[in-house]
Amino acid sequence: MSDVKSKVEVINLCKCFGDLVVLDHCSFNVNEGDFVCVVGPTGCGKTTFLNLLTCLIEPTSGQILIDGEPANPKVHDIAFVFQEPSLFPWKTVGQNLRYGLELKKKPEDFIKSQVEKVVSMMGLEKYRDCYPSQLSVSCAQKTVIGRSFAMNPDILLMDEPYAQLDVKMRFYLEDEVVRLWKELHSTVIFITHNIEEAVYLANRILIMDNKPSKIKEEVIVELPRPRNVYSKEFIDIRSYVTEKIRWW
Amino acid sequence: MKKRSFIRDVSLAVLPFFSIAIFLSLWLWVASGDNAIIPTPVDVFNRFILFLRTPVSKTSIQRHVWVSMCRVLIGMGSAVIIGIALGALFALIPTFRSVFMPLFNMFRPIPPIAWIPLVTVWFGVGEFPKIFLVVYGCTVPITINTFTGISMVPDEFDYVSKVFHAGKWDRLRDVVFPSAIPAIIAGIKAALSSAWMILLSSEMISAKAGLGFLITRGSDSNDLALSMIAMILIGLIGSLMSLGLTFLERKLCPWETELN
Amino acid sequence: MGNRIKLSIEGVSHYFVTFNKKDIQKTHVLENVNIDVRENEFLVLLGPGHCGKTVLLNLIAGLIKPTVGEIKLDGESISGTDKRISMVFQQASILPWKTVMENVEIAPKYADIKREERRKTAQYFIDLVGLNGFEKHYPRQISGGMKQRVGIARAYSANPEILLMDEPFGALDAQTRYSMEGEILKIWEKDKRTVVFVTNNIEEAVTLGDRIILFSQAPATVKEVYDLCGLKKPRDNMSEEFLKMRDLISSNTDMLRE
Predict the structure, then answer these.
(1) Where in the sequence is the domain holding A69, given as residue range(s)?
(2) Inter-chain residue contact C175 with A164, CB threshold 8 Å
């Protein structure tokens, strides 16, 4: 394996709010095409970390580099998926899917082709002209994911997007995300509490500590896809990560 | 980055003083000049110093303030007692509500100020009619808010009292009244601003002392600076009383402020 | 399980009636629910959100009367709230103007039990839920998970024969939820009573329940009853039996949020 390009480099990242140290010298790399899952206790700073990545707040010290340059939302394409469905209720599915690309002022042809690609990949042909209120939850979430992937972002950040959904839906959407990731060769950073989800999705798992947070450990997951949640290897990795975390 | 936000913070702290300074300058500019009608800030200040030494209408400045404040406080105090009692009776005793609510609703929309002529004819120009008007005006919002607060106990607490078998008085004491306190205090706050308006109107029309009296006196004797002093004093006292109420609220209702 | 039947829900259907300007709207919430609750079992009612499980719990608690059907406790029909039945609410619903101790001792207080005795009972349960030291705290000073524990201690202090729990961990974050599930099992092991526990989380149901009753979407009917007595507690949520049961139930659910 030749040296894989580092897409995101986090170097000695520290963030303090007054006296409260939230992030304490976090350092890690995310390579192009990685699917990284970040797991950690509530309140350990995952949201702060995401806010730093998207440049909503400034680090106290340290750097975040994307493609070798300091992270800058004007230059880099960073897409975000939240826990709650965040579709614009006044736009149709098709219009929602276009939104990110329109913001970045991409050429019309490119927008059309990207949206087409995503619509067919996610099976949303029938819903193109529907409004979010007319969709089921799974379709709404698929649209949200589709919107983010359509932008072909440098990095796709997902903040516990499936936390509120039940098991069946979760498995389904996890498969969708993996499919998109593979086909579009995106780089994904996915935050979750659910260890099973992390082991299912990630090729690298980063375990964060309690405040002041560091990256406690990194676990490489090299299981073939699609992954079998019953297999011994899967359970072993899941047990290992759970042991490491034991925050409850 | 840090430098930028420091400058921003300093600017934000200093700007309010700028706007006040601009206001004072405008006032000075409008008030100076040969055809000026209103007094300048300096005039007002001088008049204030004079007032501290020389009584107006044989009454010192302290006494004027005291007289107005007494009327408001006695009026509000009575209104609080009457209002809470009335609101509670309306909320808890259906018969009382059926009999007296329509009457209450008849009087409700009539503003207290409209009663001034009638009250003056009946009760004259002494203390009682003024306080009466304040009581009348303040009782209304307090009654309504008490009534709403007591009737609308949140479902969740209602269920708690049922599941754990609270008796009637237990329920009133432990669930109904505490959950109504924020609404009652909101009613009192609304009543406070009414109180000053009502008092000033009645003082401006017929009084021998008080802040409202000073306003009218000032305009009658071409002593506008006096009126302005009274206005400023009213503003100050009103703010202080409001602050006092907020403080009281926090003491009585510590759980509400935390939820906020 | 050979335990006798403590509570029986017989042919219960329930409608809510709302009066609009033109007509009367009937919302059909429950349809022909028949459930036997055995003594000292941990029974889980599982179903999608807003399917009517909370309504069923309120019916059992005696807060509302079923439109059709009967609920019997120890063979007798329930009418109104009963001292043998206690409840833990979804939003904890502890009184914000009372301390932890005052909240927990509320049921014995209303039952006119003397101060010393009821304080002892309350203290026992405060210790049991792990809130020792917080007796004089007010709800605003404690976290969401701790508020729920107060709610649980309060329900136990009423010395009920049946404990109803209405999605008590739904509003908590994932890690607190996991730890509370462990806590509730420990408490139940120590002080066994009949528990009827409502949730919309399949994994929580499989972790906690002796039996799981799966409901359909509204109007809720009983879709299936799962007996999990074979799985020993505490359950390993990575074991094959656990995962198999989880998948079995999830493939049968009408689940969707909203």
Answers:
(1) 6-76+154-245
(2) no
